[in-house]
Every structure is written in structure tokens, then in C-alpha cells.
Amino acid sequence: MTDSADTLAPPPAEPPVRAPLSPAPVPLPPLGNQAAVFDRLRYRVARNGLRVAWQSGKVKLITMLATSAIVAAFVFGLSWFGVRELFQFKVPAKGLIVGGLFDLMFFTLGTMLVFSTGIILYASLFTAPEAKFLLTTPARANRVFAVKFQAAVAFSSWAFMILGLPILVAYGIGTGVPWYFYPLLPAYLLGFVLLPGSVSALFCLFLVRYLPRNRRQALIWLGVVLVVLGGFWASRVLAAFKQTIHAPKKNEVEGLIGQFALVQHPLTPSHWMTNGIMAAARGEPAGAVLPLAVIWSNGLLAYLVAAWVAGRVYRTAFDRIAGGGRDRRVYRGNVLDRVMNALVFYLDKPTRILVVKDFRTFRRDPTQWALLFIFGGMMLLGATNLRQFYRNDLVAVDKYVVSLMNVAGTSVLLCAGLSRFIFPLISLEGRKFWILGLMPVRREQILFGKFVFSATGSVLIAETLILLSDILLGMSAGPLVAHALTVGVVAVGLSGLNVGLGAYMPNFRETDPSKIVVGFGGTVNMVIGLLFLVLVVGVMAAPIHAAGLAHGFASGHDRETPLWAFSGIPLGLALGAVAVWLPLRAGGRALKAMEF
């Protein structure tokens, strides 16, 4: 029994195997596999997005394409007119003028690309939920950066293509360039966008990673340095202008163009673009291909440097943003809030509080006002520089045409800015509207407060831009008053349209304002706004310039302006009143009928 019991007894259990204290790290997928995965993802997202856009939003898609085509055609027409005027009159140093204008254009567009790409890239890398998800996956940091970088560059450069390509095509048609000039243009533009995009990516990564905790103080010092440098450069330009007033015309032009030596430096990408395009226009293939190779090689090198930096600092920068204590920030009053409250003194106190609330939301988000100041600064800079041409009777450029372009550009800026920032206000407050419902105000009063906030800010910005630019251009009193009335009507009318249509066609399912803007309601609002500003500018400002060209008073003698040139002003005022009353009335009724 004992032997059998011992035989049937189970063997002694083996001691458990203890897991190692530090498990081996999971190897990341190879670089090639990650690139293929993201390429398939990008292709599938693009395909599904186009299919959904075509199936559920044909009107929106066609409207966006048609609007882009109209803008491109308008830019082409103005550029062709300018090229024809330049080569029709015997202007000295035509090639020098065209080269300087191209240098300035590419430098300006490149600077705007740096800011716009940086803003989009910051939002994509550090605040988007998708970035948080991707950083929890085995995807490498530089691969996540590459995906976001490509999307940001593609999104920010479409306007560069729409503005740059028609200008260059108009120059080619007006001067009779060889056939290979046109195929080279897309290659130049696509290669050029890599450089400002990579520079903005490097600035974004380094600022987020190494900016001191006291960011406000650091940004203030950075702003002071930029203002000092800008003032020093402006003083040099003005001093050079005074020295060239009595110079011969050719020397005068050379002196004026010479003030932009920075954008004409041989090491600047804008000058590479100008050299290559001008060489292609002159029929020099070798001279056109070499700058193209330089642009692409430097652009790709800058992209590789940005990706290398992202692989080493992106995760650390993201952790720094995530753990920066943003939730503990205490917001207090500001002197700008008191200024805004004083500007709307005529409103009752509850409505003033709502206006100041919307203003605080606007001023606390730099992405909302940065591009407005960039565009305004560029326009004033251009007006300052062109002023010297007019004082010295260079008739190739008509200051009335340029001032009308400033009015149109300011109006388009208002249309785009208000569509982006004012139209989504009601939609963004939809889920939290019950908080506003606790206030002792009617819903129509809330809507009116948003209209006053939009109209006050847009009128101040638009009038400042247009009055300063017209004064710098030396416009006479008649056109100046007409321009001021025009942009005032456009600002107030677009404010009424955006606030009213935003309440009439809200989108409470989205929390991202950019998605609300590109939705059906945002597209309809943008199209109606563009039609409105075209009508207002056409009936209020265009007759003044038509009369100037017809009567030949380009020197600014306002006494020769016929009365019929001002006949469209009452019609424009009526259009502005309708654009305010009808949308606000419809939006107020729709908002009153909603249940939250």
C-alpha cells in the first residue's frame, strides 16, 4: 500500500517562474512600415472625404471650387492689367521693377506662410485630440510630425497657389514667354512652400520646448525687439525716400528698389524664385533649372532638419504643454476689456457684459487675431512703398487702381475673418446656452450683443487700414470719404450676415470652429458675404475710380469728380441696412424657437 500510494502520488510542483523585473522593450515597427501605414491612412481619409463631400455636399464642394476660381480669375485680371500698363508706357528699368516686385511678392507670401503654417501646425501637434492618440501608439515622433506637417503645408499653401499662379501666368501672357515657362511654375511654387513651412515648424517646436514658463514676459520682449528692428528699418527707408525725391527717374527707381535689399539678397529663397522665373521668361532654360534645383534641395534639406528636430523634442514639448498647469490659469480683467466696454457705452449693462465676454474670448486666442495684424501690416507696408512712385509721376502704376485693390482686399479680409470667428459663435455656445439663459436678457438681446461686438471691432480695424493706406497713397478727399463709407458698410453688413446666419443655421454637433465654417451653413454664409461685398464695393467705390480714369484726374484733383460718381452711395447704404436687418430678424426668430 505504501509503495502504491507513493507511486500514485503527484509529482512535486515546480516553483513558479518569476517574471523579469524590467521587461524587454517592444521594438518599434520599421520606418518603412510606418510610412506605408500612414500613407494608406492618408489615402483612405482623402478618398472617404471626397466621397462624402460629393454625396452629401455637392453644393458646398462646387461652391468652394467656384469661389476659388473666381478669386483666381480676379487676381489674374488685375495682374494682366498691371503688366500691360507697365509695358505700355515708357517706364525706365522695367525689368528692375518687375524683379523687385517679384522679390517683394515672394518674400511677403513666404512670410505669411511662415505664420499661417506655424499656427496650423501648433494646433495639429499640441492641441488636436488625434495628436494625443498618435503619441500613445508605437508611431515614431518624427513620423507623427511628418503627417501633421504635410497636412499643415497643404492647407496653408492653397491660398499661395491661388494668388501666386495667376500673377505669374498673367505676366507670361503679357510678355510672350516661351512655352516651358508655364510647366515650370507649379514646380517652383511647390518647392518654395517647403522652406517657409520647415522654418515655421522649427520655430514652433523650439518655442514650445524652450520658451520660459513666464511666456507672457518672453513674448513681450520678443515683440519689443521686433518693433525696434521694424522701426529702424522704416527710418532707413524714409531717409532714402527723402534723398531720392529730386533724383532722375532711373536712379529714383533703383534707389527705391534698393531699399528692399533684404529680399533681394542672393541667399534669400524669394530671390531664387525671381531669378529662375525671370530666366525662364527670357528663354534661358539653364538659368531657370539651376534656381529650381536650389529651391528643391534646400526645401527638402530644411524638411529633414525639421523632422530630425521633431524626433528629439516633440514628445518633450508635448509633455511640457500637457503638464504646464493650463487649468490653473487665472484670468483677470484687462485694460482692453475696459476699452471695449467704453466703446459700447450706449448699450445696457447686461448686453455690455456679453460684448466684453466675446471680446475676451477673441483676445485670448492669438490664432484669431494674428493673421489680421499680419495682413494689415503687409498692406500698410505696400502703401508706404508705393507712395514714392506716385509722388514722382511714375504713371505705370495707377494709385486709384491700387487704392481700389486695398478696399477690395480689406473687404475680403473682413469677409474671411468674420466668417471664421463670428459665424460659429452661436454654434459653439449651443450646448452651454442654458448658462446664458439664466441671465435676465432676451435671446434677441444676446444676438444683438454679438452683432455689436462684431461690428465695433470690424469697423475699427477696417477704417484704420483703409484710411491709413489712402493717406499714405495721397488720395484726395472724395475717394477717401467714399472708401471709408464703403468699408464701414461692408463691416456692418457682414457682421449682421454672420451673426444672423450663424443663429439661423447653427451646427451644435461640432465643437471645432473650423469644421463649422466649412460646413453647409458656413459655405452659404461665405458665398452670400462675397456677393454682398462685391455689390457694395461695385456701387459705392468703383464709380469713383471709373470717373477718375474717364476724366483723367489721376493727379488727385477732386474738383473734377462728377456727381454721378457718388450716386451709388445711397444704394450701398440701403444694401447694408438690408444685410443687417433681415439676417438678424431671421436669426432672432430661429434662436427664440430653439430648445436647449
Count of spatially separate domains: 2
Unreliable stretches covering 5 or more consecutive residues: 1-7, 19-23, 244-248, 388-397, 553-559
User: Which overall shape is indicated by the principal axes computed on the Cα atoms?
Assistant: globular
Which quaternary structure do these chains form? single chain
Which sheet architecture does the biggest sheet show? none
Pfam families: ABC_tran_2
Keywords: Membrane, Transmembrane, Transmembrane helix
Organism: Fimbriiglobus ruber
Transmembrane segments: 61-81, 101-128, 149-173, 185-208, 220-241, 288-310, 369-390, 402-426, 447-468, 480-504, 516-544, 564-584
Notes on the protein architecture:
The protein has 596 residues and is mostly helical. It has two domains: 58-323, no CATH class; 346-595, no CATH class. It has helices spanning 2-8, 31-56, 58-88, 94-127, 129-135, 141-175, 181-210, 215-243, 249-258, 269-281, 285-322, 335-343, 349-363, 366-391, 399-421, 425-428, 433-437, 443-473, 477-504, 513-517, 520-540, 542-551, 568-593. α4 runs antiparallel to α6 and α12 (335-343) crosses α13 (349-363).
